[in-house]
């Protein structure tokens, strides 16, 4: 059993034609994702523009009102309504099944070991704001009421602490991309 270093959420398994579907959006005002763990941020829409998806508080689960549209693929910063780059679009990996994603696990911010019982279960998402993996979205095994994802498989070994899982977003929690 190993302790796994947390990594940013990212696409894991492609759709039936072998690609990871993407779409482009303009950035909402006053958003910033510069580098490191923040690059693969989960995003939702505000007035038709992407913004970092909101957790209910720092180190908290994804807010129940959020409809994730995808994971942004590149850094971005402060594209305001009056800036020169206000009409630059950002590419986003769409969250629509059947594409699956990978993320590390946690238990309400604490370390969590992988178990076989996790496969097939639904859990929430949590953005870590401190400690190992600050800024990383994780699958939160402590959140079973406000769920967003279904775990398909374990990527790391049973017993690994903070291991990674493969998951899909729940159909009723994402925009209908027609996938």
Q: How would you sum up the major sheet? A: 5 strands, mixed, barrel
State mean pLDDT (0 to 100 scale): 77
- What is the string of SSEs from the N terminus onward? EEEEEEEEEEEEE
Number of strands: 13
* Rg measurement, Å: 16 Å
Structural class: mainly beta
Unreliable spans: none
Query: Which shape, going by the Cα principal axes?
Result: globular
Taken as a percent bin, the fraction of beta residues is 25-35%
Q: Helix tally?
A: 0
Distance from N terminus to C terminus (CA atoms, Å) equals 37 Å
Helix content: under 10%
* Lateral arrangement of strands in the main beta sheet: 9-11-10-12-13
Walkthrough of the structure:
This protein has no helices and 13 strands. The protein is mainly beta and 179 residues long. The protein starts with 9 loop residues before the first strand and ends in a 10-residue tail after the last strand. The mean pLDDT is 77.
Short descriptors:
179 residues; mainly beta; five-stranded antiparallel β-sheet; 0% helix; globular
List the SSEs and their pairings.
Elements: E1 10-13, E2 22-26, E3 32-33, E4 42-46, E5 49-52, E6 70-72, E7 76-77, E8 89-94, E9 100-106, E10 122-127, E11 137-140, E12 149-154, E13 164-169
Parallel strand pairs: 9-11
Antiparallel strand pairs: 1-9, 2-8, 3-7, 4-5, 4-6, 6-8, 9-13, 10-11, 10-12, 12-13
